[in-house]
Amino acid sequence: MFLLVLLGLILVIICIQQAFPKHSLLPFALVNGSLTRITSKDSVLRPHKTTEDKKINLKVAGKSYAYRTGDLGISLNEDATLRPYYVESRLKRLIPFSMLAQAYSKQTPYYDSSQKGLNIVTSSIADGINQDPVNAGIHIDQSSVTIISSKLGRKFEPKKATIAIFDAITSQQNSVELASEELQPDITTAELEKAVAKFTSGLPDELAVKVSSQSILLSKQSMLSWLTFTAINSQPVIGFDDIKVQAYAEEIATNFRSSSPPTATIVALTDGKETGRIAGSPGKSIIGANLKSRINIALSIGSKEVLAELVDVPSPIKYTRSYTRSSEGLKDLLGQITAGKNIAIRYIDVNDRGWDVGSKEHEKMTMASTYKLFVGYEVLKRVDAGTLKLSDSINGTSFDVCMSRMIVNSDNECAIAMGERLGWNNIVASAKAIGASDLDWVDDAHGSVSDCATLLRKLASGEVLTQSSRDYYIGLMRSQVYRKGIPAGTSYEVANKVGFLGPQLNDAGIIFAPDMTHVLVIYTNGESWDTIAEITRQIEALVI
Length: 544
Description:
The protein is α+β, with helices and mostly antiparallel strands.
C-alpha cells in the first residue's frame, strides 16, 4: 500500500513538472542567495544588475582606487545569467524532484567585460604606480664627490590586473589586491660608494702631463671633478668623463709652445640649406681620448708622469641656423626640434595662408587623455543627430556634467562611462570618417598628432558639428585646468586638451591669435611641460 502511495506521489510530481511549457522560467529559485518567486525575467536580473553600480576597491602598492563596476566596462550577460533559471528539458523532468533540485541550486551570474574600459582604468593606475628604479649617482661640487642615493622602482602590469579585476567582480568581491613588483636598481648606493672609494684611493695628489720638455701639473682635485661611472654586468666601473677630459686637453694644449688650436668652420643654414660658409683652419692639439688613455695607464702602473702628444686636428664645423617665415622654414624648425627625441608635432594654419606642417606627424604614440577629444566629439555628434541629449543620465549624473568633468578636469570615470555607452568601435569609426586615420585602439589608445590636429582643425573651421555644439565644446576646452603646456607658451587664448600618462605628455590645442586661428598638437615622451611651452614659443615666433 505504501509503495502504491509513493509511486502515485512520484507520478503526480512528474506530471506537475511536465506541465510547465518549454522555455518557461522556474516558479521560484535561489537568486543571489535568496529564495525568490520568479514572475518575469526581471525577477532574476534585477538583483544582479545592482552589481554594475557597486563600488570595488582596487588595491595596489599601498594605494586604493574605488571604481563603479559599470565604469570598468563590466556588464551583466543577461542571456547567460537567465539560462539556468529556465525549466530543463522534458526528458530531464522525468526525474522526480529535478525542478526542485534545480530551483535550490546556487547559480552564478555571468558578466561581459569591455577590454577597452578595463585597459583605460588599469593604465591610469599604472601611471601613478609604475616607476623605474634609479641607480646611485655621482655629484661633483668642485673637488667634492657626493654619492646620490639609489631608489627602488615598481612595476604594475595593467593587462594582468584586468584579469584579476574581472575575476573579483564575477565572484562578488568588494575589493581586490593587484600584484606589483618591486624593482631593484642596477647600481645601489653601497655598491657605488665602495667603487668610488677604491678608485679615488689610487689617485695621486698630482700628475705631471708632459709634452716634449714642457710639463703641467694635473691635481687630484681636477681628476676628482672628472669622475663618472658606467654599469657593466650590474656593477659600477669608475672612470673619467670624456667631455671633461677633452675640455681639459684643449685648455692645456695652448700652454705648449708647439700647439696651434684649430679654428671652427662656420656654416650658415637657412631652412636647412647652406647659404654661407666661413672657413676655419686646422691646428695642433691634444686629443682628449688619447690623454685619458695615457692617464689611466699611468695610474695603473703607479707612475706620476703622463706623456701627452700634440697631433694634427681638422677644423671643427659649427652650424648657425635661421628660418624664413614660410612653411619651408617651419618644416626645418620642427625637424630640428624633434630630431633624436620622442617628440611629434603638427601645426595647421586654419586661415587663408593654409600652412600644414608636421614632423613625425603620423607616428603612433600613446594618446593618454587626448583620446577623450574623440569621445566628446561622438557625444556631440549624436546630440546634433537627435539620438542623445546632454541631459540624459550617465555615470550617476548627466552627459553635460560628464562632458565638463572629462574635458575640464580630465576625469577618467566619465570618459569610460561615455565610451562604454557609445561603443569604442563607434567612436573610432566616427573619428576615421573625418580623417583621423592613425587611430589604433585595439589594446590601448594609440594615435598620432595628426589625428587630434584633424579633429581640432575641423572644429575651428566649422566643418563638423553644429555651431552650438562647436561653441559648447571649444568653451569646455578653453576652461580646462591643465595649462602648463601650449597655453604657457603663448599670450593668446587657447582651447586645449592635455594628456599625461607616465613619461608621455601631450597637448592638443586651438590658438586664437588676432586675425589668425591655428591648431597645434605636440606629443612627447620623456620631456616636460616646459619643453612643450618652449616649442610653442619657437613656433609662434616664426608663424605670427
